[in-house]
Design a protein that fits this description.
Blueprint (H helix, E strand, L loop, with lengths): L8 H26 L4 E2 L10 E7 L6 E7 L5 E6 L6 E2 L15 E5 L8 H11 L4 E2 L4 E2 L4 E3 L15 H10 L17 E2 L9 E2 L2 E7 L5 E7 L5 E4 L4 E4 L11 H6 L15 E6 L5 H18 E2 L9 E6 L9 H21 L10 H5 L2
Parallel strand pairs: 6-9, 16-18
Antiparallel strand pairs: 1-12, 2-3, 3-6, 4-18, 5-9, 7-8, 10-11, 12-13, 13-16, 14-15, 14-17
C-alpha cells in the first residue's frame, strides 16, 4: 500500500472515538423508537395513582355531587380561584403559607351554596374510615369543596345535594374509569348563556388524563356550567354554546364583538369547577402553581371565562406515588392541556334535556 492510501496518524487516533459516537447515536435512536409516545389514559383522572372518584346524581331533578377521594394519608393540594362569584369551602388552608399540607378529598357539587353541605357527608365517610389530618385525639378529614349554580334546571330548586349525597359519593368512589356526562356535579350544568335566555345548551362532567413515557401522569376532572361557549382548542370549533333559532351556533365571540350579550349573566348563576392531579411529589407551592397554570385550560376551551357571573375554581393534587424528578413547568403545562380536553369532553359526553340540547343532539341533525 502506498503512503498516499494509508490512513493518516490523526485518522487512526480519532477513528475509535468517531465509531463510539456513531454507535451511541444509533443506540439513542433505537431507544427513541422503542419508547412509547405519551398518550391519553382512558380512565381519566383516576389514572393518577391514589385517586378514586364517585358521583351521585339525584333523580328528582338534574343535580348531584362528585367526590374525589385520596387514598391513605392524603395528597398535597392547591387551588386557583379566578371567577367573580365563587362558592367554596376550605380553600384558605390550601395557601402555601398555611400549615395543613394534606387533602383527603375534594367535593364538587351542584345546588349553589346549598350544595356545600355535600362536603359534610364526605367528611363523615372519611372519619368512619380513619382518614384525616392527625391531631392526636382525632383524625380530621380535610375536604375542600366548590359548587356550581344549577337551581333553575329541570324542576324544583329545593332539590339539591345534601350531606347524604356527599357520603354516598365518597362510598361509591372507585379507581375505575370516570363516569362522564350529565352525572354528579355536572348533572344540571349548562353552557352558552352569554346570548340570553332559552339559547343555552347542556354540558356536564368531563375527565381526561395523559401518561408520559417516564411514568408521570397528569389528569383533570371538571364540571362545566359556564356563561361562555365551549371551544375545542385543537380545532378552534365551537362544541356547545349559544344557539340561533335554527340550532346553529351564534358564537359568543361574535356576540361580544358586536357589543355584548342581550342580558348580563347573573352573578353566581354559572361556574366551572374542577381538579387537576398528578402522581408527582409536589410541595404546596408546586401544587399552587399547578392550579394556576391549569386555569389556562379554562381560557382555552371556554369563551368568555372567569367572568363576574362565573365562580371558576380549580383545585390541584399531587399524590406523590411517582418518584421521578419534578418539573413543575412541564406538569403545569400538561395540567392546562388536560383541563381543556376535559372541558370539551364535559360538553361532548353530556345528555340533553327538554329545550336544552347537548352537543350530541346537534350532531345528529
Amino acid at each position: 500500500m502506498s503512503s498516499a492510501s494509508r490512513p493518516s496518524p490523526l485518522f487512526r487516533l480519532l477513528a475509535p472515538g468517531v465509531a463510539l459516537v456513531a454507535a451511541l447515536a444509533a443506540a439513542q435512536a433505537t431507544a427513541r423508537m422503542q419508547t412509547p409516545a405519551p398518550g391519553p389514559d382512558a380512565r381519566g383522572i383516576t389514572a393518577v395513582d391514589g385517586l378514586k372518584v364517585g358521583s351521585i346524581t339525584l333523580t328528582e331533578r338534574p343535580t348531584g355531587c362528585t367526590v374525589i377521594v385520596v387514598d391513605g394519608a392524603g395528597a398535597v393540594g392547591g387551588v386557583s380561584q379566578r371567577g367573580g362569584a365563587p362558592g367554596t369551602r376550605e380553600t384558605d388552608l390550601l395557601d402555601p403559607s398555611n400549615m395543613v399540607d394534606k387533602v383527603n378529598a375534594i367535593v364538587l357539587a351542584g345546588g349553589s351554596a346549598y350544595g356545600l353541605e355535600a362536603a359534610t357527608g364526605a367528611v363523615r365517610w372519611l372519619e368512619e374510615h380513619d382518614m384525616g389530618w392527625d391531631v392526636r385525639i382525632a383524625k380530621v378529614p380535610i375536604v375542600p369543596a366548590a359548587i356550581l349554580f344549577d337551581l333553575p334546571v329541570g324542576g324544583n330548586p329545593k332539590v339539591r345535594p345534601t350531606a347524604d349525597c356527599g357520603y354516598k359519593a365518597a362510598a361509591a368512589a372507585t379507581s375505575g374509569k370516570v363516569q362522564e356526562g350529565s352525572v354528579g356535579a355536572g348533572a344540571g350544568a349548562t353552557v352558552g348563556k352569554s346570548g340570553g335566555g332559552n339559547r343555552s345548551m347542556k354540558a356536564g362532567l368531563g375527565s381526561y388524563a395523559i401518561r408520559m413515557p417516564n411514568g408521570l401522569v397528569v389528569g383533570a376532572l371538571v364540571a362545566v356550567n359556564a356563561v361562555g361557549d365551549i371551544i375545542d382548542p385543537d380545532t378552534g370549533k365551537i362544541v356547545a354554546g349559544v344557539r340561533n333559532p335554527d340550532n346553529t351556533f351564534a358564537d359568543a365571540r361574535q356576540i361580544l364583538r358586536r357589543g355584548g350579550p342581550s342580558q348580563t349573566p347573573r352573578p353566581g348563576a354559572n361556574t366551572t369547577i374542577g381538579l387537576v392531579a398528578t402522581n408527582a411529589r409536589l410541595t404546596k407551592a408546586d401544587a399552587h402553581r399547578m392550579a394556576l397554570m391549569a386555569d389556562d385550560g379554562f381560557a382555552r376551551a371556554i369563551f368568555p371565562s372567569h367572568t363576574m357571573g362565573d365562580g371558576d375554581t380549580v383545585f390541584s393534587l399531587g399524590t406523590g406515588t411517582w418518584t421521578g424528578e419534578v418539573n413543575i413547568t412541564q406538569i403545569g403545562a400538561l395540567a392546562a392541556d388536560v383541563m381543556a380536553k376535559a372541558i370539551v369532553r364535559a360538553a361532548t359526553e353530556a345528555t340533553g334535556l327538554p329545550n336544552l340540547p347537548a352537543a350530541r343532539d346537534l350532531a345528529k341533525r
